Fold Type-F conjugative transfer system protein TrbI.
Amino acid sequence: MTTGLIPSGARRQVFGVPLASLALGVLLLAALLWSAWTTRTLLALQSREVVTVELSGLIGAFVEAEARSGTDPEASQRRVAAYLEAIDASVDALGRNGRTVLVGEAVLAGQARDMTPLVRADVARRMENLAHAAR
């Protein structure tokens, strides 16, 4: 016996629900979940603060001071490596607080807040802690 164009035996059902309706429901649920995730992600991106750090100035000043210090080249090389690690850790800490950190030299225009003084102070603290730990 046929009802319409599809024979009644050919209609597939899962738990009494037509398979086409079940598939449509799953697709709608997936679209709803995806749109909720997308909205949450976009709102989180909108709330991020964009800041800049003048890395070349920080690094250049330190390397220049090390070159003028007249210390042992190997000791100077270790201090420069420690300074670079301290800068990396400081910039990473800025990024973990919901900020997007850009290299100041790469920013051409805009209203990004310069965090170079904060990074300079944090790196000085880290280097001081490293010097105390080495004693």
Observations:
- The first strand starts at residue 2 and ends at 3.
- The chain has a mean pLDDT of 83.
